[in-house]
Amino acid sequence: RLIFSEFRTFDQVRAELDFLKHLEREGLKVASNILTTNGRGAIPTPDQKYWCSVFEYIDGFEMKPGGDHWDEDFFKNWGAHIAKLHVASKSFQLAPFAPEACNWYEDLLFKIADQLLAPDDEVGRLAYNQVLRECTTLKRTPENYGLIHGEFIPHNFRYNPMSGELIPFGFRNT
After folding, report:
1. CB 26, CB 46: distance < 8 Å
2. For all residues of the chain together, what is the average pLDDT?
3. How far, in Å, CA of 145 to CA of 136, rounded?
4. DSSP secondary structure string for all residues of 108-138
5. Full-model pTM
């Protein structure tokens, strides 16, 4: 995987790889990072424009809405994996080099939501503002607030319907 160095810092990439290792230690199946012979999970390209990391092959395919296996079993599996991910994330400790994790409301989509909604979409704006108001007033505790996968959608995991395995990758929005 190549990540443009202007898009993410090396410490952000390292923090993502640390999170993947933590999830593996907690028993979750994830795309395992393959280390270099020097034990590094990511290295810069010679021109320093990209960070390069390699992951194990994942057996499965990207799910497509309405496609084969887009059914109740898949959705139960998807939801169960999200729950396991959230439980495992509670015990994760950021390394000293890691940038501070951002809050959900700092995500670009929340910052520009007003621009994304059509000016005349009163129903959408009311619904968005109600959900936002409810979410921002919830009490934050270690049991209900922490790291989440901000993009746990089909293009960030592979699903094998024969084994029922759902294996995520791409944790940059965690």
Report:
1. no
2. 86
3. 12
4. HHHHTHHHHS-TT-HHHHHHHHHHHHHHHHS
5. 0.75
